[in-house]
Amino acid sequence: MNVANTKKEIADLIVHESKRVGSPITTKDFEIFHQPLNHFSPALPEGKMAVYTFVFNDVFLKVGQANQRSKARYQSHHYHIRSGRSTLANSLIKDSAMSSIVNEDNVTDWVRNNCERFDVLIDAKLGKITLNFIEGLLQYKYQPKYEG
Question: What pTM does this model have?
Answer without folding.
Answer: 0.93
